């Protein structure tokens, strides 16, 4: 592959990472705390968060898919050589990164399952009790925190790979 093609592929990968990780951090560190100052109603906060989450997912999910595709393409030569994969620090870091990505996908799938369509509709139509919303909110917060931590860990291993450590 020509250098310019590799640069474009890396750029696409990094833009998608910026969307996924940056958006996740923004929602958790900026938007969610700000939302608490906008309304005291947990029902209203959940409704707003669902709207924001749906909007974010329109760019975040394609970004995650593109990121996985470009990452796999970038590492396909090494993935085909088990000796490099397990006998070098580069290969070991790559394996750890792939495992973290798999755990991230599983975490995201659980998150989507927790906020499935019927649950979303109950929240949006005010048909969920306060205790149910509190329980759901705790699950969402934990899954969101896990997602952010995994995403940051993946970025760390990506930087190790880029540095050739």
Describe the overall structure.
The structure is a single chain. With 165 residues, the chain is an all-alpha fold. The protein is built from six helices and no strands. 90% of the residues lie in helices and 0% in strands. Helix 1 (3-38) packs antiparallel against helix 2 (42-79) and helix 4 runs antiparallel to helix 6 (130-163). The protein has one domain (3-163). It has helices at 3-38, 42-79, 82-87, 89-114, 117-124, 130-163.
What is the topological layout?
Elements: H1 3-38, H2 42-79, H3 82-87, H4 89-114, H5 117-124, H6 130-163
Helix pairs in contact: 1-2, 1-6, 4-6
Structural domain tally: 1
* Percentage of residues in strands: under 5%
Specify the helix fraction band. Answer: over 70%
Largest beta-sheet details: none
From N to C, what is the helix and strand string? HHHHHH
- Secondary structure tally, helices: 6
The span between the termini is: 23 Å
Features:
165 residues, 6 helices, mainly alpha, 0% strand
């Amino acid at each position: 592959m020509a250098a310019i093609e590799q640069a474009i592929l890396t750029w696409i990968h990094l833009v998608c990472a910026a969307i996924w990780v940056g958006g996740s951090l923004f929602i958790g560190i900026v938007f969610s705390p700000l939302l608490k100052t906008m309304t005291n109603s947990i029902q209203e906060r959940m409704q707003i968060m669902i709207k924001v989450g749906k909007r974010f997912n329109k760019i975040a999910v394609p970004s995650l898919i593109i990121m996985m595709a470009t990452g796999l393409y970038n590492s396909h030569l090494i993935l085909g050589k088990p000796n490099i994969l397990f006998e070098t620090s580069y290969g070991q870091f790559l394996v750890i990164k792939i495992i973290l990505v798999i755990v991230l996908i599983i975490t995201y799938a659980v998150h989507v399952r927790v906020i499935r369509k019927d649950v979303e509709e109950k929240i949006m139509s005010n048909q969920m009790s306060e205790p149910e919303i509190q329980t759901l909110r705790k699950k969402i917060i934990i899954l969101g925190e896990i997602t952010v931590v995994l995403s940051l860990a993946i970025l760390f291993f990506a930087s190790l790979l880029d540095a050739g450590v």
